[in-house]
Amino acid sequence: MAHRFLFALLLLVWTPAMAATPTPEERRLLEALGMSDVLEVMRAEGLDYAGELETQFFPGSGGAAWEATVSGIYATDAMREIFITDFAGRLEPATVEKALDFFESDLGERVITLEVSARSALLDPEVEDESKALLEDLIAADGPRIGRLRAFVDANDLVESNVVGALNANYAFYVALNEGDAFPYAMSEEEMLADVWSQEPEIRRDTEEWIYSYLALAYRPLTGGELDAYIAFSESDVGRRYNRALFEAFDTMFTAISRRLGASVARFMSGQKI
């Protein structure tokens, strides 16, 4: 699960926004970002990930009950509610308007379409392999395109933000497992944090590979000039504030999902399929 987010160790430096109702302009921005389509893809990714959890924790015993449980956890309406109420109010109205100027432009609309379609396509393992091969070719060529992708990743802090999000989500999952008595003995906070932190190098490697191969695939149709314009927006104050608000809302959503997944896994491990 492509998300692909001591507490200092996990870099939990943000403060959740108060639950709020989004303004019409914020709703316009989320629509321009294709958020409904993004959440549908994330639901599909989550359902795939849930199959991996069953194999790891209670192989072959989840059945229809596990499928129904996971479908509820990854219900798009529930995901949207968590995300929207956390995202609302994080940005000043002037920042929202300037972000709208970009994402409602022809280029903005095009990059969102490319991003969503590429993420959906990566659900196919063959396409994922093709994206990795494309990235290898770009790295071998060491030309302007890979340089632009690196600049885009740096401008949006994509690797670090995704690694932190994954660590936060994994910690929430461990806490829920622990509370559900899924471990042979109750784990201390220090033990759980140490276990989660030990996963950081692997998470970082996987995150870097996924992000760069995804971007190589998604932005392949863009010209160098178009990608430069997107990078310039990302490097602007507006772009940075928008990007941080987006990641913080996603982090809140994925942490909540991970807690529910951990609690559900613990119940299924104990045979309580409810």
Q: Can you put this structure into words, describing what you see?
A:
There is one protein chain. The radius of gyration is 19 Å and the shape is globular. With 274 residues, the protein is mainly alpha-helical. It contains 13 helices and no strands. The protein has helices at residues 24-32, 35-57, 63-73, 76-87, 93-103, 106-121, 125-141, 144-156, 158-179, 189-198, 200-218, 224-235, 237-269. It has one domain.
Short characterization:
This protein has helices spanning 24-32, 35-57, 63-73, 76-87, 93-103, 106-121, 125-141, 144-156, 158-179, 189-198, 200-218, 224-235, 237-269. With 274 residues, it is an all-alpha fold.
